Amino acid sequence: MQSELIQSPLYKILNPDSIAIFGASNRFTSMGSSQLASILDLKFKGRLYPIHPKEKTVQGLKAYRSVEDLPEVPDLALIILPTHLVLDTMDRCGRKGIRHAIIISGGFKEKGREGIELENRLIEISKRYGMRFLGPNCIGIVNPYKELNTTFLPYTAKPGFIGMASQSGSFITQMFDYLSKFNLGFSAGISVGNEADIDVVDCIEYLAHCPNTRAIGLYLETIRRGRRFIEVVQETVKIKPVVAYYVGGTEAGKRASLSHTGALAGPDELYEGIFKQAGIIRAYSIEELFDFCWVLGSMPPMKDNRVVIQTHSGGPGASTADACERAGLKVTELSQETINRLKKFVPNTGSMQNPVDLTFMKNPAHYLLNIPEILIDDKEIDGMLIYFLLSVRHIKSALEGLKVPKDQISCYIKSFIEDHTNSLKKMINNKKKPIVGFSYRGSEDQFISELQKRGIPVLPGSLRATRAMWALYRYSKIKESMENGKDK
Amino acid sequence: MQSELIQSPLYKILNPDSIAIFGASNRFTSMGSSQLASILDLKFKGRLYPIHPKEKTVQGLKAYRSVEDLPEVPDLALIILPTHLVLDTMDRCGRKGIRHAIIISGGFKEKGREGIELENRLIEISKRYGMRFLGPNCIGIVNPYKELNTTFLPYTAKPGFIGMASQSGSFITQMFDYLSKFNLGFSAGISVGNEADIDVVDCIEYLAHCPNTRAIGLYLETIRRGRRFIEVVQETVKIKPVVAYYVGGTEAGKRASLSHTGALAGPDELYEGIFKQAGIIRAYSIEELFDFCWVLGSMPPMKDNRVVIQTHSGGPGASTADACERAGLKVTELSQETINRLKKFVPNTGSMQNPVDLTFMKNPAHYLLNIPEILIDDKEIDGMLIYFLLSVRHIKSALEGLKVPKDQISCYIKSFIEDHTNSLKKMINNKKKPIVGFSYRGSEDQFISELQKRGIPVLPGSLRATRAMWALYRYSKIKESMENGKDK
């Protein structure tokens, strides 16, 4: 895997040890300056060489008047210059011996005829020197494991396991905060822009071999190398899942993506067919793409489609059951053995049907450990959906009501959270069946946050949790058919 | 309107001046105690009479040994007692002259044959005294305008404009925090439980006349009075929109709701037909229900289905365009006049097609005022979707980068937010066309939060915003056909 990773044209782009930066200055409002600020903010450990015609230092770094003046041949050129300067800069980088570039500048194919011509000349120059490049008209990359972020927004999430290739830069950068809300992050995020050289297919190949990536997400407005795309994905899904969100399928989506990245989108049915053949799980919003990647990257596989729902509220239970059936999951009846084992934990007011509705529980350990363990043990159950209602604020106000001293309360809450999240996590590891939580609270609640941090997905709402669980089931089926050499 | 409101059996339940509470004690862990704590927490201004066999005071209030000892006939009895005590309590309340009750206790119809019998006797008793009651097996009500919350969770949201009747108590109480995240709240929330007496139809009639309610949300697992339901909704939608989320339509949903409230759900197509005939807008998750109510309750009507999308990022623009088309909204081309007017504001890198993609803007006033105003002025446009990327953190770090002194920064941000949210709000009021915002940030960002507080909906993500905009369009069509006396 490692050697295939290093051979990827993206390897030095995502893992450079030295970068020449064109376009950064000391004026904070200029584009290139934000990118350099993001790089500095994430504390990149490699060598940085700002190229500036006048300044001696840029953002505290020694600046160089031209690429020719650099003391070494950097691994990567990061170009954020006005369009008319890009070609010459690439040429000089090539002559210097630089073999990888990210071209953030726009004004190429997406701008019509003249831009197409410029882009063709860009390709010519890169070929002349054997250079590989990302862009133009992209936003760059983020690789939190290399502490590198070349986008114009600071990376606020943690290093994560979602590898993303996107035909929209926004769906990389503008997701930093979004992902961090769920205690998620990118393993690598790649904005491909116009794909004049490196394209989504290259990204998938890189991410397939990237050891930090457990699930691959694609935002697509078009596919440029159809046949190769299918082949690469078919190989990839044998080792990790690929999720795609495609928006060029409608007339309005098509027009929008044409003006966005000059992409020629195809009809929805065509892409649906490609996705099926390739073994891609299709998402219908950017949130769903991340939901799917989240659950696929953190849970064991789901062998079949039989789920059990555990709730302490009827409404969330019934709505989850309804959502399961709509998604193609089966809310099966529990075996008599399971019901017998459950009896001592389920209160009078509760229900031992599926959804298992526990109503009010005095002992949270029953809800968070004993009962899930019994349910997941059922041989007729392939996965479990759990509703999390309990919040730290509730526990706190309950303890305050019982007149427990303040210092004891925070201590109690801390160990409560640790004990329960750890034991639930251990249980999932032992049982090797997936559990997906859902709640109408988010990570602002410490309990939800700690569950998420320990790798237990807790999604916002039952519909999203159910759809993500379906993705797990779907991936099992895809893997099965790919391994059998059949398309499904 | 006021007289019809007062005649509703729910009027004294939602607006009592005095309440007898059965089941509250000084033990914090008991059910009734939480309800009393919630009432005290919201600072109910009426008179509260806890009934307790032993205690002299309950949670600081003078307690009474029995209902007979009360110094007045309270407007409402709130009963949170073990099942076997409920019938006798109702009988004694009736004899005392109490005419309205909320029965939170469970153990009735939802428990099968024996429970059905108990519930029938409950109905007999209430009829004997001419009493009207909510429940049993419900969670009570919240009326923030009367500062009254009889549920077991504290009401954390603001008084709002969403009137909700729910066959799940959870979808009232567990939504308090959820709604407050969007700066929303209930005008009235009613958990109907088993609907032994007062049912959803009564709730709709009340909410139709409730002056604080601008949109009605229903969570349904069944409909008990089909014909009357349709008639009442048909009248209601002439004055305000009704949104329903129904989960009994699948086999799994049906089974779940049977054990939940003893409801006999019907097939999905039947309910779909009822909703169409009645003029209900159907939501497919609880989040969607609130999204729809939010936008319907805060925006002017949308005459036809032609939308313009304003974005500063291609991906969010393209995905919104795609979502619009899927939802049945039309992303029309802009008129030449509009394009001419736009020219001076849109940068080179931007696009004046629809979606209007402004890429990077130096002057936020252009994005937040000038451009939306031009777009919404277009006669071929019925509504507008705006993407909000800008965050207070970005403005702050930009100003810090420009070395603006700290105290000036916070001052600048404050007036920035006030000016822009106010002028956008004013513009919507003048133009009388709906604007729906979306963002991948939430109200943790002060700018988003202030927009929401001023009544401009900013929804999480483009798909949800688009679906909610569709609901606006749908409502116009419903109203039109109802006013013409036709069903559509």
Quick overview:
2 copies of one chain form a homodimer. Chain A has 2 domains: 2-295, Succinyl-CoA synthetase domains (Rossmann fold); 300-479, Rossmann fold (3-Layer(aba) Sandwich), CATH 3.40.50.261. In chain A, 45% of the residues lie in helices and 16% in strands.
Distance between the termini of chain A: 27 Å
Instruction: Give me the secondary-structure category of chain A.
Output: alpha/beta
- The DSSP helix count of chain A reads 19
Biggest chain pair interface: A-B, 79 and 77 residues
Please state how the strands of the largest beta sheet of chain A are arranged side by side. Answer: 9-8-11-10-12-13-14
Major sheet of chain A: 7 strands, mixed
Kindly report the CATH topology of the largest domain in chain A: Rossmann fold
Question: What does the oligomeric state look like here?
Answer: homodimer
Number of domains of chain A: 2
**Beta-strand percent range of chain A:** 15-25%
Runs of chain A in which pLDDT lies below 50 for 5 or more consecutive residues are none
